């Protein structure tokens, strides 16, 4: 696929997934009444999807590395659209839950591919702008989703919500099938199916355990057991599911930890903030939503600013500052005395989270070898799925232990406590020709050890000079 089409497809895939989650949240009460479902059944229309997608993201990324990100993206989009259409005509809530599992399987295929395609199509030193565009589009979708979902559910019923994604999913799925496959290394080692199954069980049980907090459930010990067996298996497997060059990279590990922390702080804090605004201040749902608009605005605005910060200051400085802003915003929300202060807190949270998301994602995708781009995308998406579940579960427990603002304060402190992790990220870029340029940029030093660890981008940058309509806008070299 050429680069403009690749970027458009990546954005479309990310937006389809983001819209699906936000519009369903608004439409669930209508779905429950129409299908005469219990509260637990209505909740499972979301839980079933989350469990399915969380368990398969990494393996789906590995499939993309082996068989091509375009192909897995196409299958994911077409299947996601078909499942959405099936849910729209489902006769009962059982069918909805079952088809949401199917939708989660295809969602797991397309999500890592949206990042894998970017890594395969763009040189490593030009990934900042595409990732920023993708993140800004996710922000727009997340902001517009509740409004669009509410309008559709009110005017046409909950079924219209699921028809929203059918046309773009089928359109970009067919477009991806028609495009020429990107170059990829020939398939060598076999797929680590036992490792994939163990990781899927561990992640699916972890998500289920978090969703059922504060109650105890069988899934918590099952997740721990599966994780222990998975680690033991990976150490002995001749072709492990998680390549050593990815999992042993301090930068990738730090970026993933920060994505989990930031997304947990954001979602858990907002979950608690809704109760503070509506139960504490007596605001309506609409008034609360309007008051939180600065979050969406600053999250979207942070995407292009993040690309600039990455080029001029480096990932470490950008993420450190953004994490501090995110934590400060949550602390402001925790003790805000009035609406103006709440709006300021939302703005800080949006700016901080938007920057962390772009910069940390850039580190994960760039630091991974091109042949493991799908696994890196799967890990990033896993972090972005587990983090929100962890945040909301934590907020639920904390709200039972103290005032409604307690989760915002605790999660804000947790974000600030993660600042030392930022030291693992790449430092400030060094201009070409400057002393030490080969060893201090986002690209690790070109040493045999670095190459063995899979951290050097050198084998993947000699793909020719940038050309096409994005040549000027994406020509932000770091070296």
Oligomeric grouping of the chains: single chain
Order of helices and strands: HHHHHHHHHHHHHHHHHHH
**Arithmetic mean pLDDT:** 80
The coarse overall form would be globular
Helical percentage: over 70%
Characterise this structure:
- It is a single chain.
- This protein is mainly α and 479 residues long.
- It has 19 helices and no strands.
- Mean pLDDT is 80; it is low at 432-479.
Record the SSE blueprint.
Layout: H1 3-35, H2 39-67, H3 69-88, H4 93-121, H5 128-156, H6 159-163, H7 166-178, H8 193-211, H9 219-236, H10 244-247, H11 250-280, H12 285-291, H13 293-312, H14 315-334, H15 339-367, H16 373-399, H17 406-417, H18 437-440, H19 448-452
Features:
single chain, 479 residues, mainly alpha, 0% strand, disordered C terminus
Summarize the structure.
It is built from 19 helices and no strands. The chain is an all-alpha fold.
């Amino acid at each position: 696929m050429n680069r403009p089409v690749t970027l458009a497809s990546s954005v479309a895939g990310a937006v389809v997934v983001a819209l699906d989650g936000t519009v369903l949240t608004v439409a669930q009460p209508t779905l429950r009444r129409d299908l005469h479902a219990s509260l637990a059944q209505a909740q499972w229309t979301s839980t079933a999807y989350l469990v399915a997608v969380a368990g398969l993201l990494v393996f789906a990324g590995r499939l993309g590395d082996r068989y091509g990100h375009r192909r897995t993206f196409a299958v994911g989009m077409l299947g996601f659209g078909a499942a959405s259409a099936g849910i729209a005509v489902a006769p009962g809530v059982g069918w909805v839950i079952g088809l949401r599992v199917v939708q989660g399987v295809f969602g797991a295929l397309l999500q890592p591919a949206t990042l894998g395609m970017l890594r395969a199509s763009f040189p490593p030193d030009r990934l900042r702008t595409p990732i920023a565009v993708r993140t800004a589009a996710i922000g727009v979708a997340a902001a517009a989703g509740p409004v669009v979902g509410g309008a559709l559910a009110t005017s046409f019923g909950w079924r219209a919500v699921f028809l929203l994604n059918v046309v773009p999913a089928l359109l970009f799925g067919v477009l991806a099938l028609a495009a020429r496959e990107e170059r990829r290394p020939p398939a060598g080692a076999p797929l680590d199916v036992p490792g994939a199954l163990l990781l899927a069980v561990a992640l699916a049980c972890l998500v289920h355990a978090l969703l059922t907090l504060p109650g105890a459930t069988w899934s918590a010990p099952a997740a721990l057991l599966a994780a222990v067996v998975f680690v033991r298996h990976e150490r002995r497997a001749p072709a492990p599911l998680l390549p050593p060059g990815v999992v042993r990279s301090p930068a990738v590990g730090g970026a993933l930890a920060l994505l989990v922390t930031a997304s947990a702080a954001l979602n858990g804090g907002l979950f608690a903030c809704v109760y503070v605004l509506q139960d504490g201040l007596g605001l309506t749902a609409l008034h609360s939503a309007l008051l939180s608009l600065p979050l969406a605005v600053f999250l979207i605005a942070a995407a292009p600013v993040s690309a600039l910060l990455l080029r001029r200051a480096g990932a470490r400085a950008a993420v450190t500052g953004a994490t501090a802003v995110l934590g400060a915003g949550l602390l402001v929300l925790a003790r805000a005395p009035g609406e103006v202060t709440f709006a300021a807190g939302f703005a800080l949270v949006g700016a901080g989270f938007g920057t962390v998301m772009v910069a940390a994602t850039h580190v994960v995708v760039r630091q991974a070898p091109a042949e493991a781009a799908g696994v890196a995308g799967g890990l990033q998406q896993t972090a972005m799925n587990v983090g929100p579940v962890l945040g909301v579960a934590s907020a639920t427990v904390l709200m039972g232990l103290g005032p409604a603002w307690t989760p915002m304060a605790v999660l804000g402190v947790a974000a600030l406590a993660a600042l030392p992790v930022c030291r693992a990220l790449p430092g400030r870029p060094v201009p070409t020709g400057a002393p030490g340029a080969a060893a201090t940029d986002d690209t690790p030093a070109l040493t045999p050890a670095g190459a063995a660890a899979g951290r050097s981008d050198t084998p993947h940058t000699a793909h020719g000079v940038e050309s096409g309509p994005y040549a000027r806008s994406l020509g932000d070299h770091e070296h």
